[in-house]
Design a protein that fits this description.
Distance between the termini of chain A: 35 Å
Oligomer: heterodimer
Order of helices and strands of chain A: HHHHEHEEHHHHEHHH
Number of strands of chain A: 4
Number of helices of chain A: 12
Low-confidence stretches of chain B: none
Number of helices of chain B: 15
Strand order of the largest sheet of chain B: 1-2
Strand order of the largest sheet of chain A: 1-4
Low-confidence stretches of chain A: none
Helix content of chain B: over 70%
Distance between the termini of chain B: 15 Å
Mean pLDDT of chain A: 86
Structural class of chain B: mainly alpha
Order of helices and strands of chain B: HHHHHEHHHHEHHHHHH
Radius of gyration of chain A: 19 Å
Radius of gyration of chain B: 20 Å
Strand content of chain B: under 5%
Mean pLDDT of chain B: 86
């Protein structure tokens, strides 16, 4: 029983990280039809931004961690906004060009981080409570798992509020449904594009910082690995759907944890890929279709 | 330029490249060592392999319009199946190549049949996922077959004597050159065949091809398998040149690098893709040297760090090309000629 509790909660925690990366990817794809390969770069840059800020703050570990969190989220949002304005916007007429610049940006950014900070993982000094565990059903669950899960639930709630209850959310949802029609009604969709990139970047930045707590370290290449599983989550959950991404993220996270534990290492990762192939063969559009 | 002049020029270039191992000519700045030094020949051989590989990717991406993110997988098949057959199953080189060729046809056939049920971005993602599965498989080292992260160095006794040792680099160079020429001929023949015309029609308007009574799925699958097979062949040559398999070629960033090569050279042109592959590999190799250059090493960190990361420079160059030079090198040449 304790093993099952541990695997499930760890799996949900992993799923929470996937969701934070996937939510932005899914909205960006749904609204703009841009497959954003730079999303992993947002994750990495934010993690290192947070690390630099946190190490500059003296004293209290909680304060350090929270400053790191804030800086990570802000730098993720800023980097994503700049990406949209400087690189994506000039290429609205060339969809393949948009994918290509994000590929170039991903390669260049990871290389730059490797050059600036080295290939080795950086260890984060976490507050004592995060290094401790809480007993649930006989299993000692690391406290970082609760933080990751809580943050993902909060982001899910905020995103749904934004999409369903605000004017810009309405524009985004309508844009996912039919962009040409929204434009025809005289609404400036471009601003929504930038906004969606900023939100996606902030969520990816949060994921980058939380992954540091989840794994205890940050490194330059985790973002790319996350990105691939986030892509899988987005496709399984249905392109453009936030709730679909959330459900798919949890399913993928739990499946991966269980199979990596009970099968050989790597079996879980492998199974997730097969799951994707299976889902696409049965339902080429993924499991959910609509926005939000 | 008339057709005759072009053929004569190409033939002259071919003769020059074949004769290269006999030319003890230094080319300062371009190469550190004379042209016929083993280091230079090995680098050129790698450039040819990547030229051929970029060409095979251009077949699916440039000519059929299939944005596959899994092309590295078929190159991986060429590298790893050959290495495993030689090292672990102790097959002779010819046997290992036969096994690899079979795998290089079957794998793209099966995976292509699945992936091509999707289009556009879902297709891109599912090919990416399969390539990632291949990468995980290699990294996990099942049964000690692939050597995991450490890769798989070829044993000294598994290859014919003429392919081993620094002194025999010129043989490998000729093999790589031959592979590039052969791949180019097959690709040229394929895109100019009637199937090749259908591929380009699918790229422009797939539904219309269907309306004309042709089955786009089968044509796409044909292109996918041909490109996968040729990529596996390039993988075999790469293995011989490197003397071993390294897991770097399995990763998704390697597929992204292929994309960079093709876009750098020019999507949808054969010679552009070859040139892109050659230029990319050359820059990737030479830019590492830049990091050790004393001028660069003495720069302040703000300039030194970016300049010592080849992938940063290549990624930035790529972004600039996509933004300002659509059509890559081939497109630029075409525009200069027209002006």
């Amino acid at each position: 029983m304790s093993t099952i509790a541990l695997l499930t909660i760890t799996g949900v925690g992993l799923g929470a990280l996937y969701f934070l990366v996937a939510a932005g990817l899914s909205l960006i794809w749904g609204l703009m039809r841009v497959l954003n390969f730079a999303h992993g770069a947002f994750f990495t840059v934010a993690a290192y931004g947070g690390w630099v800020a946190a190490t500059a703050v003296p004293g209290n570990l909680w304060l350090q961690w929270l400053v790191g969190l804030l800086v990570a989220v802000l730098s993720g949002a800023l980097f994503a906004t700049l990406t949209e304005v400087v690189l994506i916007r000039p290429l609205y007429a060339r969809p393949v060009g948009q994918v290509l610049v994000t590929v170039g940006l991903a390669l260049a950014t990871v290389a730059l981080v490797q050059g600036g900070f080295g290939n080795d993982p950086k260890t984060l000094t976490l507050p004592a409570w995060m290094n401790a565990t809480t007993a649930v059903l006989g299993a000692d669950i690391p406290n970082t798992r609760w933080i990751v899960i809580g943050a993902a639930l909060l982001v899910l709630g905020l995103l749904l509020f934004f999409l369903r209850r605000t004017r810009y959310g309405l524009i985004v949802r309508a844009g996912v449904e039919n962009r040409a029609m929204v434009e025809a009604l005289g609404i400036d969709v471009q601003r929504a594009f930038t906004l969606v990139f900023a939100i996606g970047g902030a969520a990816a930045g949060l994921a980058g910082w939380l992954a540091g707590a989840y794994y205890g370290t940050i490194d330059p290449v985790r973002g790319s690995a996350m990105l691939i599983f986030a892509f899988i989550v987005v496709v399984i959950g249905g392109l453009g759907s936030v709730v679909g991404s959330a459900i798919a993220a949890v399913v993928v996270g739990i499946l991966q944890q269980y199979l990596n534990f009970y099968g050989a290492a790597g079996v879980g990762d492998f199974a997730v890929v097969l799951l994707l192939a299976g889902v696409l063969l049965i339902r080429p559009g993924g499991f959910a279709g609509a926005a939000a | 330029m008339t057709r005759v002049v072009r053929i004569v020029l190409l033939a002259a270039l071919g003769v020059l490249l074949i004769a290269l191992p006999w030319l003890n000519v230094p080319l300062p700045v371009v190469f550190d060592a004379p042209l016929n030094a083993p280091g230079t020949l090995n680098l050129l051989g790698l450039c040819f392999v990547f030229g051929a590989l970029a060409l095979t990717y251009d077949l699916v991406f440039g000519y059929v319009g299939l944005l596959s993110f899994g092309h590295a997988l078929y190159f991986t098949v060429g590298v790893y199946v050959t290495a495993i057959a030689l090292n672990r199953w102790h097959l002779p080189l010819a046997g290992a190549i036969a096994v690899t060729a079979l795998a290089g046809i079957l794998l793209p056939l099966v995976l292509g049949a699945i992936c091509l049920r999707m289009r556009d971005i879902p297709f891109a993602m599912v090919t990416l996922a399969f390539a990632e599965a291949g990468s995980i498989l290699v990294m996990q080292n099942p049964g000690g077959l692939t050597g995991g992260e450490e890769g798989l160095a070829l044993g000294a006794d598994v290859l014919p004597a003429g392919l081993i040792g620094v002194a025999n680099t010129h043989n490998l160079y000729w093999i790589a050159l031959g592979a590039l020429i052969l791949t180019s001929f097959v690709a040229w023949w394929a895109v100019n065949s009637s199937a090749g015309h259908v591929w380009q029609a699918i790229r422009e308007n797939e539904r219309r091809v269907g309306v004309l009574g042709l089955n786009p799925y089968l044509y796409k699958l044909g292109a996918f398998v041909l490109a996968g097979f040729l990529a596996s062949c390039a993988g075999i040559v790469y293995l011989l040149l490197q003397g071993g398999a390294n897991p770097e070629v399995t990763t998704s960033s390697f597929t992204l690098a292929l994309l960079v090569m093709v876009v750098l050279g020019g999507v949808g042109t054969l010679w552009g893709a070859v040139l892109g592959g050659i230029v990319y590999e050359y820059l990737d190799f030479r830019l590492v040297g830049l990091a050790n250059n004393t001028t660069v090493a003495n720069l302040p960190a703000l300039l030194r760090v970016p300049l010592s990361e080849p992938l940063f420079l290549l990624g930035t160059l790529f972004i600039i090309l996509v933004l300002f030079v659509p059509g890559g090198l081939a497109g630029a040449v075409r525009r200069v000629r027209r002006a």
